[in-house]
Give the backbone structure.
Amino acid sequence: MHDRRNGSGNIHTVTADDPPFLFHRGEGYTRHRLPVGTQVIYPNAPLEPLPDRRAAIEHALDHPLGDEPLDALLRPGMKVTVAFDDVSLPLPRMARPDVRQSVMEVVLERLDRAGVTDIELICAICLHRRCTPAELRHFVGPAIFKRFWPHRLRNHDAEDPNDRADLGTTSAGEVVEINGRAAGSDLLIYVNINLVTMDGGHKSVPVGLATYRSVKHHHNACMLLHDSSYMDPPRSDFHRSCERMGEVVAKHVHVFTIETTLNGDLFHSLLGFLQKREHGWNLRDRLAYHGSRLGLGALPGPLRRKAYTALPAPYGVTGVHAGRTDLVHAETLKSLDRQYDVRIPEQADIVLLGLPSIGPYNVDSILNPILVRCLSAGYFFNFYRHRPLVRRGGVMIIDHPIPDAFHLLHHPSYYDFFNYLLPQTADPRELERRFEKSYAENDRYIHLYRHSYAYHGVHPFYMWYWAAHGMAHMGKVIAVAPQSELAARRIGFDVAPSIEAAIGMAREFVGGQPSISYFHCPPVMMCALP
């Protein structure tokens, strides 16, 4: 059993008798034997879900933090906007009913009962790609979708000049510009899913419903290069910026935040081996591993991607809180800590990571090389408190195929960024200074963002910046057997033909008798170091 208070039992020291350890590798899996003495760090087991999801939602709306109960805020004739998180959460997608649907069903019942008729639902995509009608239907459920689509259920459009509101500037001079309908509402209800500590809080409205003029203040090379960790909100400059913006929003808009947290139950029962320790695998688990690995490997790329994400996750809801954003988010973070915190006694010289092709920016898409860099040196590197799992100057080894491939419907500016900008410079500050504005204001990229399903033209810059702190901290990142060595090297990684060769290269680089840790994921975890 896992002790969720301190992570005891989460670390296994490899012996000569151990079986090979499971590694995610893109849209598949593999197994590797690890050197004796390697510390294998396992995530916590999924927390028990709340016994009655609807009752928890009702209680949160009736007993909000720092605000009146929702019913007391409603009156006939008022304008209400309900905003909600987009397709980047949760990962993998949640089995029906999605928790956003569960919350909105209760909220809309209360709006109807109060005689509120001016209601719009807005998916807070910020500069992400638009969500498809099918995705929106999954979030809100078929009944709500039928009632509101297409005129009163839509994606936020950060480039619509007729649907934006400039709310002023923060104490640090940051422009706060958000969705016009939301800003002009008598009540803005935000329905959030928190899967990791970076999400929620004042990142919801001032970012999710923002424009480029606002986002560029915290999604920039300087801030993200020096941020201690954007996964550790109390110590993050990124989160301080979002909080300043949230203070400005609160002066103009009554925001009623509803945040939910999920447990770490990520995989369908058919893939149960993915959430078991290798020592606990039975015959069924071994057969499931070999069957799914061979089955996925036999499929062509597009079909393999669909099959890899076909089974929704059976997440359980572990917390629901509502009311004033900062008070709500404090409780949300406590719930996340219970699920994800694992205490680690010391940093490692070398960290191993099996990287899945499950990321917030490649849903139904390709984890292209820029997103590989972001997910590994950005997100997974930053899953820590106080200090990174890998020491300064240490090495991260990632197992991922890294194809030189891009989804041109979703990531047209990524393709151009990779092929035309990176050959000129990989320095995030130089990229920002020379090229960011032209990509952000490019008419073609803006058209594809607004009318197709493309990420905003500036988005690859932000993904490059997200990884800046990790890349500067680590001495080297080594990719194991990438399909494209050119792609791996262009994003700043070294290359090794096998994990054994990669460990040998890392040992030679750091010298001495280096310590090795294997970050065994997903599910994700937060490494709490002293």
